[in-house]
Nicotinamidase-related amidase
Amino acid sequence: MTETALILIDVQRGFDEADFWGPRNNPGAEANMKALLDAWQERRLPVVLVHHDSAKPDSPLRPGQPGNDFKPELAGARPDLVFGKKVNSAFLGDVDLDAWLRKRGITSFVLAGIQTNFCCETTARMGGNLGYDVTFALDATFTFDLPEVTADELYRVTAANLANQFATVKSTKDILAGLS
């Protein structure tokens, strides 16, 4: 039986800089990310941590800056793979994620992290297009307001974009119940 990997996208301290990003949604996202991480580690299932290495000079996610570091919720993580990326998809990072997953016979993954409608959604779409069984842990993601669109609206649109096309959208509670 194939294992399901947990892929945590861009869970970085730089996203705590409200002056840079603006208002966010889902204040419980980090607790859900941590719950997923803990469950995967307890079961010794594969964990992948991805970080965004921004090339923008004003970004808090630039390498070498404190904002590039993982958030405290990932303290104690024992990932099977850690790598950086400079674009919105983890499949286009410093490591060939597709090859890494396929080499291990992994055909499904649960996805969580930051930002819902950018790096998380893009990775889910690419994963679906590559034939993976993708589960999107919506409540273990968050995003920020954009001009004319609230973070909550973006959150709902991402769920609608992904559902039944690229991924199965589930709550952390439902995902964890399926592990038992």
